[in-house]
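Each letter names a residue; C-alpha coordinates follow underneath. Both lines appear below:
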Amino acid sequence: MKTKVLIWSFGLLSTCLPTLFFKNANPIAEKPTAYAKVITTGADQTKKYLPYLKGKRIGLVANQSSMIGKKSSVDSLISLGIKIVKVFGPEHGFRGNASNGAPVSNEIDAKTGIPIVSLYGKNEKPSKEQLADIDLMVFDIQDVGCRYYTNINTLQYVMEACAENNKELLILDRPNPNAYVVDGPVLTDDKFKSGIGIHYTPMTHGMTIGEFAQYLNGEGYLKQPCKLKIIKVANYDHNMSYELPIHPSPNLNTQQAVMLFPSLCMFEGTTINEGRGTYMPFTILGSPALKGKYAFSYKPVSIPGMSERPINKDSVCYGLDLRQYDIKELMQKRQINLSWVIELYKASPDKDKFFSPVRANGVSAFDLRIGTDQLRKQIIAGVSEADIRKSWEPGLSKFKAIRAKYLLYPD
Protein backbone atom coordinates (compact mmCIF):
# COMPACT_ATOMS: atom_id res chain seq x y z
CA MET A 1 0.00 0.00 0.00
CA LYS A 2 3.02 2.36 -0.13
CA THR A 3 3.29 5.38 -2.37
CA LYS A 4 7.01 5.79 -2.82
CA VAL A 5 8.32 9.30 -3.27
CA LEU A 6 11.99 9.18 -4.08
CA ILE A 7 13.93 12.03 -2.50
CA TRP A 8 17.69 12.43 -2.77
CA SER A 9 19.63 13.82 0.18
CA PHE A 10 21.76 16.33 -1.64
CA GLY A 11 25.51 16.17 -1.43
CA LEU A 12 27.83 14.46 -3.88
CA LEU A 13 24.85 13.46 -6.04
CA SER A 14 23.58 17.03 -6.32
CA THR A 15 25.84 17.66 -9.28
CA CYS A 16 24.36 14.90 -11.40
CA LEU A 17 20.85 14.29 -10.13
CA PRO A 18 19.42 17.70 -9.16
CA THR A 19 15.99 17.38 -10.71
CA LEU A 20 14.52 14.02 -9.86
CA PHE A 21 11.00 15.15 -9.09
CA PHE A 22 10.69 18.87 -9.54
CA LYS A 23 12.66 21.42 -11.36
CA ASN A 24 14.28 23.15 -8.42
CA ALA A 25 15.27 20.41 -6.01
CA ASN A 26 16.38 21.31 -2.50
CA PRO A 27 20.15 21.72 -2.08
CA ILE A 28 20.04 22.37 1.67
CA ALA A 29 21.53 19.12 2.97
CA GLU A 30 25.31 19.38 3.00
CA LYS A 31 26.45 15.97 4.17
CA PRO A 32 27.54 13.85 1.21
CA THR A 33 25.41 10.78 0.77
CA ALA A 34 25.41 8.10 -1.88
CA TYR A 35 21.98 6.60 -1.44
CA ALA A 36 18.36 7.45 -2.00
CA LYS A 37 15.74 7.56 0.72
CA VAL A 38 12.10 6.69 0.30
CA ILE A 39 9.79 9.08 2.10
CA THR A 40 6.67 7.21 3.18
CA THR A 41 3.74 9.18 4.55
CA GLY A 42 1.99 8.11 7.72
CA ALA A 43 -1.09 7.16 5.69
CA ASP A 44 0.92 4.78 3.51
CA GLN A 45 2.23 2.84 6.53
CA THR A 46 -1.03 0.95 6.96
CA LYS A 47 0.51 -1.87 9.00
CA LYS A 48 1.25 0.60 11.78
CA TYR A 49 -2.33 1.72 12.32
CA LEU A 50 -4.86 -0.62 10.68
CA PRO A 51 -4.97 -2.95 13.71
CA TYR A 52 -5.71 0.11 15.87
CA LEU A 53 -8.64 1.10 13.64
CA LYS A 54 -10.20 -2.37 13.40
CA GLY A 55 -13.50 -2.66 15.21
CA LYS A 56 -13.77 1.10 15.84
CA ARG A 57 -16.20 3.61 14.38
CA ILE A 58 -13.98 6.10 12.60
CA GLY A 59 -14.41 9.80 11.89
CA LEU A 60 -11.99 10.92 9.17
CA VAL A 61 -10.84 14.51 8.61
CA ALA A 62 -9.85 14.46 4.96
CA ASN A 63 -9.85 16.11 1.56
CA GLN A 64 -8.54 15.33 -1.93
CA SER A 65 -4.95 15.20 -0.61
CA SER A 66 -5.83 12.29 1.71
CA MET A 67 -4.46 9.32 -0.20
CA ILE A 68 -3.28 5.80 0.60
CA GLY A 69 -1.36 4.59 -2.38
CA LYS A 70 -3.25 5.82 -5.43
CA LYS A 71 -6.68 5.69 -3.81
CA SER A 72 -8.42 8.11 -1.49
CA SER A 73 -8.05 7.35 2.21
CA VAL A 74 -11.83 6.90 2.44
CA ASP A 75 -11.97 4.29 -0.33
CA SER A 76 -8.80 2.55 0.82
CA LEU A 77 -9.84 2.24 4.46
CA ILE A 78 -13.31 0.99 3.54
CA SER A 79 -11.76 -1.63 1.24
CA LEU A 80 -9.53 -2.70 4.16
CA GLY A 81 -12.53 -3.33 6.37
CA ILE A 82 -12.47 -0.09 8.37
CA LYS A 83 -15.83 1.38 9.36
CA ILE A 84 -15.90 5.07 8.50
CA VAL A 85 -19.07 6.61 9.87
CA LYS A 86 -18.35 10.26 9.05
CA VAL A 87 -15.96 12.39 6.99
CA PHE A 88 -15.09 15.96 8.00
CA GLY A 89 -13.92 18.36 5.29
CA PRO A 90 -11.79 21.56 5.72
CA GLU A 91 -11.66 24.73 3.58
CA HIS A 92 -12.20 23.91 -0.12
CA GLY A 93 -14.32 20.90 0.89
CA PHE A 94 -13.81 17.16 0.99
CA ARG A 95 -13.14 17.05 -2.75
CA GLY A 96 -11.02 20.21 -2.76
CA ASN A 97 -13.11 21.94 -5.45
CA ALA A 98 -14.48 24.95 -3.54
CA SER A 99 -12.88 28.35 -3.97
CA ASN A 100 -10.86 30.00 -1.24
CA GLY A 101 -13.08 31.40 1.48
CA ALA A 102 -16.25 29.85 0.06
CA PRO A 103 -18.54 28.27 2.70
CA VAL A 104 -18.98 24.54 2.18
CA SER A 105 -22.20 22.70 3.02
CA ASN A 106 -22.75 19.29 4.57
CA GLU A 107 -23.64 16.50 2.15
CA ILE A 108 -23.81 12.77 1.63
CA ASP A 109 -21.02 11.17 -0.37
CA ALA A 110 -22.67 9.77 -3.51
CA LYS A 111 -20.22 6.89 -3.82
CA THR A 112 -20.18 5.57 -0.26
CA GLY A 113 -23.29 7.07 1.34
CA ILE A 114 -21.11 8.41 4.19
CA PRO A 115 -22.15 11.79 5.68
CA ILE A 116 -19.66 14.58 4.94
CA VAL A 117 -19.56 17.29 7.58
CA SER A 118 -18.12 20.66 6.54
CA LEU A 119 -15.70 22.31 8.95
CA TYR A 120 -15.56 25.48 6.87
CA GLY A 121 -18.65 27.66 7.09
CA LYS A 122 -21.17 27.75 9.90
CA ASN A 123 -19.57 24.78 11.63
CA GLU A 124 -15.79 25.06 12.13
CA LYS A 125 -15.60 22.65 15.04
CA PRO A 126 -17.14 19.15 15.29
CA SER A 127 -20.05 19.18 17.72
CA LYS A 128 -20.77 16.76 20.53
CA GLU A 129 -23.61 15.33 18.47
CA GLN A 130 -21.40 14.87 15.40
CA LEU A 131 -18.86 12.95 17.49
CA ALA A 132 -21.37 10.85 19.42
CA ASP A 133 -21.18 7.79 17.15
CA ILE A 134 -17.38 8.00 16.66
CA ASP A 135 -14.84 5.99 18.64
CA LEU A 136 -11.69 7.42 17.05
CA MET A 137 -10.96 10.50 14.94
CA VAL A 138 -8.34 10.31 12.20
CA PHE A 139 -6.70 13.43 10.67
CA ASP A 140 -5.13 12.99 7.23
CA ILE A 141 -4.68 16.28 5.36
CA GLN A 142 -1.68 17.73 3.53
CA ASP A 143 -0.50 21.09 4.86
CA VAL A 144 1.95 23.62 3.38
CA GLY A 145 3.39 25.16 6.54
CA CYS A 146 1.91 28.68 6.65
CA ARG A 147 -0.01 30.39 9.45
CA TYR A 148 -2.53 31.69 6.90
CA TYR A 149 -3.20 28.26 5.37
CA THR A 150 -6.32 27.24 7.30
CA ASN A 151 -5.69 23.50 7.74
CA ILE A 152 -3.94 24.20 11.05
CA ASN A 153 -7.03 26.10 12.23
CA THR A 154 -9.12 23.03 11.42
CA LEU A 155 -6.59 20.88 13.28
CA GLN A 156 -6.98 22.97 16.42
CA TYR A 157 -10.79 22.90 16.29
CA VAL A 158 -10.78 19.12 15.79
CA MET A 159 -8.36 18.68 18.70
CA GLU A 160 -10.54 20.89 20.91
CA ALA A 161 -13.63 18.86 20.06
CA CYS A 162 -11.83 15.57 20.67
CA ALA A 163 -10.49 16.75 24.04
CA GLU A 164 -13.89 18.01 25.16
CA ASN A 165 -15.62 14.79 24.16
CA ASN A 166 -12.95 12.32 25.32
CA LYS A 167 -12.07 11.16 21.80
CA GLU A 168 -8.56 10.23 20.71
CA LEU A 169 -7.10 11.74 17.56
CA LEU A 170 -4.89 9.67 15.27
CA ILE A 171 -2.77 11.79 12.92
CA LEU A 172 -1.42 10.28 9.71
CA ASP A 173 1.47 12.68 9.26
CA ARG A 174 2.70 14.08 5.94
CA PRO A 175 5.82 16.11 5.03
CA ASN A 176 5.68 19.89 5.02
CA PRO A 177 7.02 21.05 1.62
CA ASN A 178 8.02 24.37 3.23
CA ALA A 179 9.53 22.89 6.38
CA TYR A 180 12.91 24.42 5.53
CA VAL A 181 11.70 27.94 6.38
CA VAL A 182 10.68 29.40 9.73
CA ASP A 183 10.33 33.09 8.97
CA GLY A 184 8.30 36.26 9.22
CA PRO A 185 6.93 38.34 12.06
CA VAL A 186 5.35 36.43 14.93
CA LEU A 187 1.67 37.13 15.58
CA THR A 188 1.54 38.36 19.19
CA ASP A 189 -1.33 40.87 19.37
CA ASP A 190 -4.80 39.33 19.50
CA LYS A 191 -6.24 42.15 17.40
CA PHE A 192 -4.50 40.56 14.41
CA LYS A 193 -6.08 37.15 14.96
CA SER A 194 -8.61 36.09 12.31
CA GLY A 195 -9.76 33.15 10.23
CA ILE A 196 -6.40 33.33 8.41
CA GLY A 197 -4.32 33.41 11.57
CA ILE A 198 -5.15 32.21 15.08
CA HIS A 199 -1.73 31.01 16.24
CA TYR A 200 1.21 32.85 17.78
CA THR A 201 3.64 31.73 15.12
CA PRO A 202 5.65 33.39 12.34
CA MET A 203 4.18 33.44 8.85
CA THR A 204 5.82 30.06 8.20
CA HIS A 205 6.19 27.67 11.14
CA GLY A 206 8.28 24.82 9.67
CA MET A 207 6.28 21.98 11.24
CA THR A 208 4.31 19.02 9.94
CA ILE A 209 0.70 18.54 11.03
CA GLY A 210 1.84 15.99 13.63
CA GLU A 211 4.43 18.38 15.04
CA PHE A 212 1.96 21.24 15.02
CA ALA A 213 -0.55 19.11 16.97
CA GLN A 214 2.08 18.53 19.64
CA TYR A 215 2.77 22.28 19.67
CA LEU A 216 -0.94 23.03 20.19
CA ASN A 217 -1.11 20.57 23.08
CA GLY A 218 2.12 21.72 24.69
CA GLU A 219 1.65 25.48 24.37
CA GLY A 220 -1.79 25.62 25.94
CA TYR A 221 -3.92 26.39 22.91
CA LEU A 222 -6.50 23.92 24.22
CA LYS A 223 -8.36 24.12 27.53
CA GLN A 224 -7.41 20.49 28.01
CA PRO A 225 -4.88 18.39 26.07
CA CYS A 226 -6.07 16.21 23.23
CA LYS A 227 -5.05 12.55 23.37
CA LEU A 228 -2.85 12.06 20.31
CA LYS A 229 -1.43 9.12 18.40
CA ILE A 230 0.84 10.08 15.50
CA ILE A 231 1.98 7.84 12.67
CA LYS A 232 5.23 9.52 11.65
CA VAL A 233 6.54 9.97 8.12
CA ALA A 234 9.29 7.43 7.47
CA ASN A 235 12.76 8.45 6.23
CA TYR A 236 12.06 12.16 6.46
CA ASP A 237 13.70 15.30 7.80
CA HIS A 238 12.92 18.98 7.38
CA ASN A 239 15.78 19.55 4.95
CA MET A 240 14.36 17.22 2.32
CA SER A 241 12.53 18.37 -0.76
CA TYR A 242 9.07 16.89 -1.13
CA GLU A 243 6.87 17.23 -4.17
CA LEU A 244 3.22 16.93 -3.30
CA PRO A 245 1.55 14.11 -5.26
CA ILE A 246 -1.86 15.83 -5.05
CA HIS A 247 -2.64 19.55 -5.21
CA PRO A 248 -3.44 20.62 -1.63
CA SER A 249 -5.97 23.25 -2.77
CA PRO A 250 -7.33 24.62 -6.08
CA ASN A 251 -4.91 27.56 -6.31
CA LEU A 252 -1.83 25.58 -5.32
CA ASN A 253 -1.87 23.59 -8.53
CA THR A 254 1.88 23.32 -9.18
CA GLN A 255 4.92 22.61 -7.05
CA GLN A 256 6.22 26.09 -7.90
CA ALA A 257 3.02 27.61 -6.48
CA VAL A 258 3.35 25.54 -3.30
CA MET A 259 6.90 26.74 -2.76
CA LEU A 260 6.16 30.38 -3.60
CA PHE A 261 2.93 30.50 -1.58
CA PRO A 262 4.57 31.71 1.68
CA SER A 263 6.04 34.71 -0.16
CA LEU A 264 3.22 35.54 -2.58
CA CYS A 265 0.24 35.09 -0.29
CA MET A 266 1.24 38.26 1.54
CA PHE A 267 0.05 40.18 -1.55
CA GLU A 268 -3.52 39.41 -0.59
CA GLY A 269 -4.53 42.64 1.06
CA THR A 270 -2.81 44.75 -1.62
CA THR A 271 -3.80 45.96 -5.09
CA ILE A 272 -1.59 43.26 -6.62
CA ASN A 273 -3.17 40.17 -8.13
CA GLU A 274 -1.13 37.07 -7.26
CA GLY A 275 -2.37 34.94 -10.13
CA ARG A 276 -5.83 34.14 -8.82
CA GLY A 277 -8.21 34.11 -11.74
CA THR A 278 -5.62 32.37 -13.94
CA TYR A 279 -4.32 28.82 -14.17
CA MET A 280 -0.98 30.11 -12.87
CA PRO A 281 -1.90 31.17 -9.31
CA PHE A 282 0.86 32.06 -6.87
CA THR A 283 3.48 32.12 -9.61
CA ILE A 284 2.72 35.54 -11.15
CA LEU A 285 2.10 39.04 -9.78
CA GLY A 286 0.54 42.07 -11.43
CA SER A 287 -1.71 45.10 -11.45
CA PRO A 288 -3.21 47.33 -14.17
CA ALA A 289 -1.49 50.26 -12.44
CA LEU A 290 1.93 48.85 -13.37
CA LYS A 291 1.40 49.20 -17.13
CA GLY A 292 4.52 50.58 -18.75
CA LYS A 293 6.74 49.45 -15.88
CA TYR A 294 6.73 45.72 -16.62
CA ALA A 295 6.52 43.89 -19.94
CA PHE A 296 4.88 40.72 -18.61
CA SER A 297 1.07 40.85 -18.63
CA TYR A 298 -1.98 38.64 -18.06
CA LYS A 299 -5.71 39.03 -17.46
CA PRO A 300 -7.37 37.42 -14.41
CA VAL A 301 -10.93 36.20 -14.97
CA SER A 302 -13.54 34.37 -12.94
CA ILE A 303 -12.72 30.64 -12.74
CA PRO A 304 -15.36 28.56 -10.90
CA GLY A 305 -13.85 26.36 -8.22
CA MET A 306 -10.65 28.41 -8.17
CA SER A 307 -11.33 32.13 -7.97
CA GLU A 308 -14.72 33.57 -8.85
CA ARG A 309 -13.90 37.17 -7.85
CA PRO A 310 -10.14 37.71 -8.18
CA ILE A 311 -8.74 41.17 -7.60
CA ASN A 312 -8.34 43.14 -10.87
CA LYS A 313 -10.82 40.77 -12.54
CA ASP A 314 -11.07 41.22 -16.33
CA SER A 315 -8.29 43.83 -16.35
CA VAL A 316 -4.88 43.37 -17.93
CA CYS A 317 -2.26 43.17 -15.18
CA TYR A 318 1.45 43.95 -15.56
CA GLY A 319 4.17 42.66 -13.28
CA LEU A 320 6.40 39.71 -12.45
CA ASP A 321 6.43 36.22 -13.96
CA LEU A 322 7.91 33.87 -11.35
CA ARG A 323 7.07 30.57 -13.01
CA GLN A 324 10.74 29.97 -13.79
CA TYR A 325 12.09 31.54 -10.61
CA ASP A 326 14.78 29.30 -9.12
CA ILE A 327 13.29 28.17 -5.82
CA LYS A 328 16.75 27.12 -4.59
CA GLU A 329 17.38 30.75 -3.66
CA LEU A 330 14.64 30.70 -1.03
CA MET A 331 15.72 27.28 0.18
CA GLN A 332 19.34 28.29 0.58
CA LYS A 333 18.41 31.44 2.50
CA ARG A 334 15.61 29.69 4.42
CA GLN A 335 13.56 32.85 4.09
CA ILE A 336 10.33 34.26 2.76
CA ASN A 337 11.06 36.62 -0.14
CA LEU A 338 10.40 40.23 0.94
CA SER A 339 11.95 41.91 -2.08
CA TRP A 340 8.91 41.42 -4.33
CA VAL A 341 6.43 43.23 -2.10
CA ILE A 342 8.94 46.05 -1.54
CA GLU A 343 9.66 46.31 -5.29
CA LEU A 344 6.02 46.40 -6.37
CA TYR A 345 5.12 48.92 -3.69
CA LYS A 346 7.90 51.21 -4.93
CA ALA A 347 6.76 50.70 -8.53
CA SER A 348 3.13 51.50 -7.73
CA PRO A 349 2.07 54.96 -8.98
CA ASP A 350 -0.64 55.25 -6.30
CA LYS A 351 1.05 54.12 -3.11
CA ASP A 352 -1.79 55.35 -0.90
CA LYS A 353 -4.01 52.64 -2.38
CA PHE A 354 -1.45 49.81 -2.53
CA PHE A 355 -2.44 48.27 0.80
CA SER A 356 -6.01 47.42 1.70
CA PRO A 357 -7.73 50.16 3.72
CA VAL A 358 -7.18 50.18 7.47
CA ARG A 359 -10.47 49.49 9.23
CA ALA A 360 -11.92 51.32 12.20
CA ASN A 361 -10.12 48.95 14.57
CA GLY A 362 -6.79 49.85 12.98
CA VAL A 363 -6.42 46.54 11.11
CA SER A 364 -6.24 45.97 7.35
CA ALA A 365 -6.55 42.74 5.38
CA PHE A 366 -2.80 42.89 4.74
CA ASP A 367 -2.07 43.21 8.45
CA LEU A 368 -4.26 40.21 9.26
CA ARG A 369 -2.29 38.04 6.86
CA ILE A 370 1.09 39.23 8.15
CA GLY A 371 0.01 39.13 11.80
CA THR A 372 1.11 42.70 12.56
CA ASP A 373 0.79 46.23 11.16
CA GLN A 374 4.53 46.80 11.49
CA LEU A 375 5.53 45.40 8.08
CA ARG A 376 3.04 47.59 6.21
CA LYS A 377 4.29 50.68 8.07
CA GLN A 378 7.93 49.73 7.46
CA ILE A 379 7.42 49.32 3.71
CA ILE A 380 5.64 52.68 3.49
CA ALA A 381 8.47 54.31 5.48
CA GLY A 382 11.13 52.85 3.17
CA VAL A 383 12.81 50.69 5.82
CA SER A 384 15.39 48.36 4.27
CA GLU A 385 14.77 44.64 3.98
CA ALA A 386 17.71 43.97 6.32
CA ASP A 387 16.27 46.22 9.01
CA ILE A 388 12.80 44.76 8.56
CA ARG A 389 14.21 41.30 9.19
CA LYS A 390 16.06 42.53 12.27
CA SER A 391 12.78 43.80 13.67
CA TRP A 392 11.38 40.27 13.66
CA GLU A 393 13.76 39.45 16.49
CA PRO A 394 13.81 38.38 19.26
CA GLY A 395 10.31 37.00 18.55
CA LEU A 396 11.44 34.73 15.73
CA SER A 397 14.31 33.18 17.73
CA LYS A 398 12.04 32.71 20.74
CA PHE A 399 9.50 30.87 18.58
CA LYS A 400 12.20 28.63 17.10
CA ALA A 401 13.25 27.58 20.60
CA ILE A 402 9.64 26.74 21.48
CA ARG A 403 9.14 24.89 18.20
CA ALA A 404 12.21 22.71 18.82
CA LYS A 405 10.43 20.99 21.73
CA TYR A 406 7.77 19.50 19.46
CA LEU A 407 9.71 18.33 16.42
CA LEU A 408 9.38 14.71 15.35
CA TYR A 409 12.01 14.92 12.60
CA PRO A 410 15.58 16.25 12.31
CA ASP A 411 15.74 19.94 11.49
